[in-house]
Amino acid sequence: MDLKKSSITADILNFLSDCKVHTLQEIADEIEVHKNTVYKHIQNLSYRYPIQTFCGGINRGGVYLDKNYIYQGAILSNDELQLIIKGLSLLQKTDGPNVDTDTLSNLIKRYSPAKSEDIEK
Known about the structure:
Largest sheet: 2 strands, antiparallel
CATH topology of the largest domain: Arc Repressor Mutant, subunit A
Number of strands: 2
Helix content: 40-55%
CATH superfamily of the largest domain: Winged helix-like DNA-binding domain superfamily/Winged helix DNA-binding domain
Order of helices and strands: HHHEEHHH
Oligomer: single chain
CATH class of the largest domain: Mainly Alpha
Radius of gyration: 19 Å
Strand content: 5-15%
Number of helices: 6
Number of domains: 2
Shape: elongated
């Protein structure tokens, strides 16, 4: 699979990760490809992921990712990452009995953007 096909596949999965019903045209418009391209990718993806499709007449059909499936490739925005870091930092400061500080530290490191001095090393 070349890079372009891989990118389209990832974009489709990311778009469907909200588990809402979307038309092929909505997906095509969002990721800026032709509707037929989306159709072909959906066909291939449905073998590996719980993607459901249904017909309903002109512009009434739909595609969705089963809500019980969690897609791990969803991309977080910088604002979402900052919110996660702030929330984890606040949890880390509490001394409650259910707080695993090692796990929180690892999550903070995992989601924190690299510092410029770390990149230069």
